[in-house]
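Data deposition worksheet. Section B asks for the primary sequence of the deposited chain exactly as it was used as input, without tags or linkers unless they were present during the calculation. Section C holds the resulting structure in token form. Section D is free text for depositor observations; keep each observation to a single sentence. Incomplete worksheets are returned to the depositor.
Section A, Depositor: J.P.
Section B:
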Amino acid sequence: MTQSIPTVHLDTVLANHTRDMKGRIAAVTGTTSGTGYVCARELAKRGAIVVLLNRESPRADSSLQALKGEVPNGEFHPVTCDLQHFASVRKAIKEIQANASRLDVLCNNAGVMALKDEATRDGYDVQMQTNCISHFLLTKGLFDLLRASDDARIVNHSSMARIGPPLQAKYFGKNGGNLGGDGDEQEGFGGPRWDRYHQTKLANLAFTYGLKQRLDKAGIKNVKALLAHPGLARTQLAFTTERDGGMDASSPFMNQAQSAEDGATGIIRACMDPNAKSGHFYGPKEWTGFPVLLRPEADLNTSENIRVNWEGCGAAVGKFFI
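Section C:
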């Protein structure tokens, strides 16, 4: 993918909304391109030890070499983690546990968008398992390491697609391949593919604020739950969706997108802003722009959405007790 969109906001965010990360350990999912790659790079530039959680692939290998080239003094540790296979996620958790005594940042960045109505090998919708349920499992499995940090951050990635109807339990069950079909939407961002994508991005919001509620109730102050969204960013995500028949990545609307670097600024703030507090939500006010501090929409951040998310994920991979 050729990046020709000028980057406007990244330097300001790095100058004014990050801190020294020397010696801190950060794990980031989905670092082969786009927002995850940029976030991993900037964490390493500030001294963090960065755990790269990706599926095993030539892309993972080449992106690791690219990161090493951009940050020669950076410390990167690749760990195979296929979010479309719970056994792989559990194996990744064990590998991290065996090699770290704490974890300071868990950035649940990876995602897929508007893919066909297909099941993972575990039987779940490919979008919901990748974007939400596996990140719930990863967070649950690494929570003790996060508790061992003096200032841990769990960063979840939503999007503008969070806006819409409430969560429905059927999207969290073993219903992959039976959730509305594929549709034939190229430009309208409507239909069953996008309904499923919306559910995942609303689920990430519900996961974040359900997590904050539980942390607050338990009196845990050294672990923060944070949320970000990238706005409309031109990343590999759009081209993957296009290849799957879900959208036209070169449409007039998509041509208004900001760069992947600017799309990453929300999660960068959540990972490194010294003033971040649990519950903070960073992203542009509209489709593009500077990652400001946002309020989660009241009609989305509801007890019912939180219940559906936590019960659905818990039924899939085990309850998450805090």
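Section D:
The chain has a mean pLDDT of 94.
The two ends are 42 Å apart (CA to CA).
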